[in-house]
Amino acid sequence: MSGHNKWSTIKRKKGAIDAKRSKAFSRIIKEMTVAVKEGGPDPDSNPRLRLAIANAKGVNMPKENITRAISKASDKDSAALMEVTYEGYAPGGVALFIEATTDNIQRTVSNVRSIFNKYNGSLGTNGSLSFIFDRKGIFTLPQGNLVEDDFVMEIIDAGAEDVVLEDGFFTITTALENFGSMMKKLEQMKIEPESAELQRIPKTTTKLDKEASQKILKIIDFFEEDDDVTNVFHNLELTDELMDEMNK
């Protein structure tokens, strides 16, 4: 399995666990809020909102929660949210790229800096890790009745860079510029992905021993527990042994 697909598989399996927690809902509600502020409350004319709704359904968010979130975001007096990113290094030279959505940047950067400092990491300047990560579109969807060979051929013709079937799920990787066209292709095929998002995939990975790797994963968990943080991307090499530990 190629490196980025191994990472995406972990994200999907971890996402299934996250879906049991209310934070998964709060993250998606923030995404819907930003989408509504940017493009209005009609998903038919707002692709970003349409995508957020699809991801909400992917984690089984009740329809009334979705409707309420869109209605609240439409209120001109609702809190303005900003999307921010932070880049830095964890011990062992592992690169961390953090995405957050916040109504208070000072609080968010203070929390992020505090975690870096507490666990002997270093917060860098924006753009310092651009050479390590590629931004890719990642789609996951259950195989269902799809015939693997036929589906893979059609999706590659539509611009997919890679398609992997594992554990009954397809993982589709696209270039950043093909993310929107792949969404349209799946809509045309009447396929609703379980998730569709832009991820930052490492071009190279950093390999540490098991103990050091587990410490890095705990640091990542601390970042993800922050209410403002929406995603943490890293370039820690996910060995088979480490993946087994993560799936327990």
Quick summary:
The chain is of the alpha+beta class and 248 residues long. The chain has helices at 3-18, 22-39, 47-58, 63-74, 105-118, 148-157, 179-188, 210-225, 240-246, and strands at 82-90, 94-102, 122-123, 133-142, 162-166, 169-175, 195-202, 229-234. It has 3 domains: 3-74, Arc Repressor Mutant, subunit A; 82-131 and 203-246, YebC, transcriptional regulation domain (Alpha-Beta Plaits, 2-Layer Sandwich), CATH 3.30.70.980; 133-202, Alpha-Beta Plaits.
Structural notes for this entry:
It is built from 9 helices and 8 strands. The protein has 248 residues and is of the alpha+beta class. The chain folds into 3 domains: 72 residues, Arc Repressor Mutant, subunit A (Orthogonal Bundle), CATH 1.10.10; 94 residues, Alpha-Beta Plaits (2-Layer Sandwich); 70 residues, YebC, transcriptional regulation domain (Alpha-Beta Plaits, 2-Layer Sandwich). It has a 4-stranded antiparallel beta sheet. Helix 2 packs antiparallel against helix 3 and helix 2 crosses helix 4. The longest helix is centred in the N-terminal third of the chain and has 18 residues. The model has no long low-confidence stretch (mean pLDDT 88).
